[in-house]
Design goal:
341 residues, 11 strands, Aspartate Aminotransferase, domain 2
Length: 341
């Protein structure tokens, strides 16, 4: 089957992940996380993020985001995020439904928000008539494939804490960010003051499964109940846990992310000089955003499916995966050149 550039969750699973599941599929084991696989996976997270963190496994990214937000808010709170944030545009109002909170989206050209454009929304604190700002939620890497610098995250974290707020990171592609920044997972999150992280596995070689990671256990003291009430407590949790244990062992998370990032840079290099093609965002992780004239899209999508991000401007999103190869890139670029010439 022809590979696509639609999303990094279109890919299959890393063979090492498959093998880990096979090994876990032997005999009986405790349910609901009371198993050796979950214990070992938790230890792996603590190796990467610190011994005092708390981590819980869920089925997918939407649940990780929604339940993370639910654990640190009350229904009278508001959550500040980028207008393009997954929690705002791609989760079918699940954050509002399950938290009761008001989302306050900020217009952004590159997927990133800053203290400067957050500040106007920190208003009427203590006013019973107004939703009380409680969480700043950022995405790393962003929906545009761009990256927050360590300095930018630290500034947002310090601002959040100064205003008695919590910083949440949607880390569906946090591994790609760490690989690109050449930093550890802890260095780009908890060392900077991030309070709660939605850690993605599905987009980096796992079959399914994401995690909610708390820097401070005081924020997670009721999460076990929130997860159960949110229908995300897996009975046979070992099949999520063993994937995370494998992903976080022997730098598999890093190797997979490095490859998808490398392939995105290669793709950008291959198409940036094609007439009529324009790269629209910095290529900092595993996404390439480009304008391709609308009349060429049907032919290209027939061979390699991808999504049109902005129909008005004919801007497309091209995602690379852990298993994308240079041959895939060259073949796709060759088709683009042939189509638009």
């Amino acid at each position: 089957m022809q590979k696509s550039f639609a999303s990094d969750n279109y890919s299959g699973a890393d063979p090492k992940i498959i093998e880990a599941i096979k090994k876990a599929n032997i005999g009986h084991s405790g349910a609901y996380g009371n198993d050796i696989y979950t214990k070992r996976a938790v230890m792996k997270f603590r190796e990467h993020f610190g011994k005092d963190i708390d981590v819980y496994f869920v089925f997918n990214g939407t649940s990780a985001n929604v339940l993370a937000l639910a654990s640190v808010t009350s229904s009278f709170n508001s959550v500040i995020c980028a207008e393009t944030a997954h929690v705002n545009v791609d989760e079918c109002s699940a954050p509002e439904k399950f938290t009761g909170c008001k989302l306050i989206p900020i217009l952004t050209a590159d997927g990133k928000i800053s203290v400067e454009n957050i500040l106007p929304h920190i208003i009427r604190l203590g006013d019973q008539h107004h939703a009380q700002a409680k969480v700043i939620s950022i995405t790393q890497s962003t929906e545009f494939g761009t990256l927050y610098s360590l300095k930018e995250i630290k500034e947002i974290a310090d601002f959040a804490h100064k205003n008695n707020m919590v910083l949440h990171v949607d880390g569906a592609r946090i591994s790609n960010a760490a690989a690109s920044l050449n930093k550890t997972l802890k260095e780009i999150t908890f060392d900077l003051g991030v309070d709660v992280l939605s850690f993605g596995g599905t987009k980096n070689g796992m079959i399914f499964g994401d995690a909610v990671v708390f820097r401070n256990k005081s924020l997670s003291k009721e999460f076990m109940y929130i997860r159960k009430q949110g229908m995300q407590l897996a009975s046979k949790m070992r099949f999520i846990s063993t994937q995370f244990e494998e992903l976080l062992s022997n730098d598999l998370w890093l190797k997979n992310a490095q490859n998808s990032n490398k392939m995105a840079r290669l793709l950008a290099d291959e198409i940036k000089n094609i007439p009529k093609i324009k790269i629209t965002q910095k290529v900092e992780a595993n996404a390439v955003f480009a304008i391709i004239p609308n009349q060429y899209l049907p032919k290209l999508q027939k061979e390699y499916f991808f999504y049109v991000w902005d129909e008005k401007n004919s801007e497309v999103r091209l995602m690379c995966s852990f298993d994308t190869t240079a041959e895939d890139i060259y073949d796709f670029a060759k088709l683009i050149k042939k189509t638009v010439r």
